[in-house]
Amino acid sequence: MTTSNHYPDSTITNAKIDAVDDYIDTEVAAIKAKTDNLPTSTVWQRQADAYLSQANPVSTTLYEVLATTANVKIISIATNITWATTQPNPLVIIATVDGVSVEFTQADPVSATTYLPNANVGGAATSHGFATSHAISTEIASLLCSGRSVKIAVRVTWATTQPTPLVCRVKYAQKS
User: Fold this and answer.
1) What is the largest CA-CA distance in the chain?
2) Nearest 10 degrees: CA dihedral of 10, 14, 16, 22?
3) What is the rounded CA–CA span in Å between residue 6 and residue 149?
4) 53 alpha-carbon distance from chain centroid
5) Could you give the percent of the chain with pLDDT greater than 90?
6) How many other C-beta atoms are found inside a 10 Å radius of the C-beta of residue 139?
7) Which of 38, 81, 109, 111 is least crowded, fewest Cβ atoms below 10 Å from its Cβ?
């Protein structure tokens, strides 16, 4: 009586399985190597805050807080002016994103109060105000979200210059 083997040779099957396993291992390793070594230019990297504390600011002088910087995403901007004798009018931040300047203005700022940019939805596209709450509106977040080239500057207008600090802080991330 003859017996027939209906199953393939187990050594051939094991060799094929081993070859497929090796191929999968090689592909997984290649994918892992690519993702482990993503260039930093594809990832937002948090930067040290850009910060200005200008003692005795000169009326209408524009002080640079964040020099023109490439590939920036703004996280937040906050400013304040402390005054004792003469109230300044106005306090202004100018954000230039990809060549378009947007001005945020606070008339008669309250001494030592922190102001955050806030979109003036009904106003001109390049003219906005400030808010004193820490929630940045979705309009301003989309306006200042990111750009290939970003610069932030601040100024105050005085009737009489007095000893006082003008402070501005910009939190941002960057792709290199």
Assistant:
1) 117
2) 180
3) 70
4) 21
5) 34
6) 13
7) 38
Token pair, residue 87, equals 């109230």
- The number of residues making up the chain comes to 176
**The model's pTM:** 0.70
- In terms of Cβ atoms closer than 10 Å to its own Cβ (0-12, 13-18, 19+), residue 13 is exposed
Q: What is the DSSP letter of 115?
A: B
**Considering the chain, what percentage of its residues have pLDDT values greater than 70?**
69
Check residue 148 and give left, alpha or beta (phi > 0: left; psi -120 to 50: alpha): alpha
Give the pLDDT score at 7. 53
Q: Helix, strand, or coil here: 1? A: coil
The answer to whether residues 138 and 38 touch, using CB atoms and an 8 Å cutoff, is no
Q: How far is CA 123 from CA 66, 74, 98, 102, in A?
A: 26, 22, 21, 12
- Long-range contacts, 3-8 (Cβ 8 Å, 24+): none
Per the CB < 8 A criterion, the answer to whether 164 and 57 are in contact is yes
**How many beta carbons lie within 10 A of that of residue 131, not counting itself?**
18
Average pLDDT over residues 155-165: 81
Taking the CA atoms of residue 65, residue 68, residue 73 and residue 76 in that order, the dihedral angle to the nearest 10 degrees is 10
